[in-house]
Structure formats: structure tokens, C-alpha cells
Amino acid sequence: MISIKNVRKSFQTKQGTLTAVDNVNLEINEGEIFGVIGYSGAGKSTLIRMLNKLESPTEGSITIAGREISKIKGAELRKARQEISMIFQHFNLLWSRTVRENIAFPLEIAGVSGAERKRRVDELIKLVGLEGRESAYPSQLSGGQKQRVGIARALANNPKVLLCDEATSALDPQTTDSILELLVDINKRLGLTIVLITHEMHVIRKICHRVAVMENGGIVELGPVLDVFRNPKQPITKRFVQQVTEPEETKDTVEHLIKRYPTGSVIQLTFVGETVEQPLITNLVRNYAITANILQGKISQTQSGSYGSLFIHLDGPEQEVQNALEYIRSQQIGVEVIG
Ligand code: ADP
């Protein structure tokens, strides 16, 4: 179903070339639930974004359902995009629309007519177990229900592949289990190929058939989940396996990693132990003449706080950006300026 051949993805920064995905080769079978695990910065998101054509490989080729996706354009590209859907950690729902309207949205865009659209939405609501909540707005739903809307919306156009980007990382353990069960159910009923990325080994163990372990942009270990569990070869894989057998204690300290990239407008925050992102961004925008937008973020909630990595784009007059960075430093939050 998916064939990734010699794929490399590099980003140009002022300090030189940053290779996010390095010489990856992978075949994912039709109907498989395939997991990619790695720590923050390993290259998982970049890999999954290339499957979705949100990024293009610098080198190599990606073929999905017989189409080499880097070579197609126009109507063929639109069709290919319909065949690959994605669900997200923070659901990405339309907040001003009801459950029904959220699920109907991709069908509207695809030009599916009123009666057919209604029939299809009813079917999807039933499939994901949201009967009775059709008229609710996302803000009235629990995290698990929001992700059910995300899944129904992703399935609206009958995709062949479902990409899951840390889809359960924002959910509590019980809700995580129910969403994972739903994914297995969908995989069995619809024969859908599922590719999921995560930093949590219990997610892999629960539902994946095979797993690839990523480190520094490359795949360092690959195999059936049971084999990898019984006989992990790489040190990093052993650490992930230990996560499940001996859960790590959550650190309570805030650790902010500081790396430096060439130009001054995108910052990356990596943090452990405390929720920093929302108050930080609110204060930045309130106090400085800048805009601050999250480009890409991964935040995992634990009982003692959150951890993860965020890319935030700061834009505005140079002096204001500098003042904002000073403010972030004064909050003892690590700043990585990445260009
Ligand atoms: P993961 O999903 O495993 O956390 P990512 O794919 O997000 O990893 O990132 C891999 C590496 O690529 C990181 O070092 C990150 O800083 C870098 N990276 C990702 N996107 C960009 C970008 N648009 N520009 C520059 N560097 C990037």
C-alpha cells in the first residue's frame, strides 16, 4: 500500500542543512496497522507529513496505492489526497460547527449531494458511536468524543490510509484504550491501512502489527511488535520496551532544552513537567507587538503536567521579537531559534 524508497528530507537553515529524515526505506502492507515510535525530534512527523504531501522528500520516492505521490498534480493529486486522511493529537475540529457539520465538511468539499451526504454522515456517526451527540459543538464534548468526530471526519471520503499523529497523546488512559479499540474495529471492518506515530510504547503494543523505531531521522529497528517486545536489539528500543514493563516515573522538574538555529523568528520549546504553552503565548501576544502562532506542536498530558515540543513562529518588529525572547528567557523557558 505504501512504499517509501531511499527517502531523505532536509531543511535548509542558516547553520547548514538539517536532515530530519535520513535514508528511510519502508513497505507498509494493505490492511496493516503500522506504528512508528521515537522520541521528540526523531523525524516521525516529517515522515508522516511526507505521506500526506504536506512536505515533499528532498530525495527518494513515496508510492501510495500505486501512485508515486511526488509526481502527481491537479485532479490526480486531489484524488490521492482523499485516499489519505489524518487525525491529530489536538483533534483540529471546526469549533463553530456541530458534530454533524464537522463530519459533513469533507463531503461538502468533495461536492457530495445533500441526501447522500446525510446518509453518509449518519453511517459515520454510528460507526464511531456518537449517536445522540450530532448537534453538540466540540466544546461540549469530552476528549474521547472529540477524537471520535476527528475519526469520523477522516473516514468521510472512504480513504485507503489513515494517518494518526499522536492521536491519543492528549487523552487519559481509559479514553486512549477506547479510541485504540475503535481504530482496531475500523481497521478490521473497513480493511483500512493505519499508520500511527507515537512516543508511547503501550499504544504500539496494544494495536500495531509491526513497528519501526526512529532515531535521528533513521529507522534503527523494524519488525513485528511481538518480536520487538521479546527481543529488542537497539538500546533505544530497550528503553521503549521498558516504558511498558516498568513505567518511568514522571519527572516533576521543568527541563527546557536550548538549541540554536540560524534566524530569529521560529522558536522551539521542549519542556517536561508543567504546562507552559498557553499562558506563554497569551502573555506574548498581550505584551508585545508580535504575533505568535504554533506551527506544529506536540504536548502530552500526564498527571503531573505536560511534556512535549512546540514550534512557535514569532513575527513583528525586530526589537519586539527580541523583547519577547527576553521575556521567555525570564520565564526560564528554553528557547531554540530555528529560522
Ligand atoms: P518528531 O515528530 O519525531 O518529534 P520532527 O519530524 O518534528 O520529529 O522533527 C525532526 C527534526 O527536524 C527536528 O530536529 C526538527 O527540529 C526538524 N524540523 C522539523 N520541521 C522543520 C522545519 N520546518 N524547519 C527546520 N527544521 C525542522
From TrEMBL:
Residues 2-241 form the ABC transporter domain. Keywords: Amino-acid transport, ATP-binding, Cell membrane, Membrane, Nucleotide-binding, Translocase, Transport. GO terms for cellular component: plasma membrane. Coiled coil: none annotated. The keyword Metal-binding does not apply. PROSITE patterns: ABC_TRANSPORTER_1, ABC_TRANSPORTER_2. Pfam families: ABC_tran, NIL. It comes from the Bacteria. SUPFAM superfamilies: ACT-like (SSF55021), P-loop containing nucleoside triphosphate hydrolases (SSF52540). SMART domains: AAA, NIL. GO terms for molecular function: ATP binding; ATP hydrolysis activity. GO terms for biological process: amino acid transport. Belongs to the ABC transporter superfamily. This is Methionine ABC transporter ATP-binding protein. It comes from Neobacillus notoginsengisoli. The lineage of its organism: Bacteria, Bacillati, Bacillota, Bacilli, Bacillales.
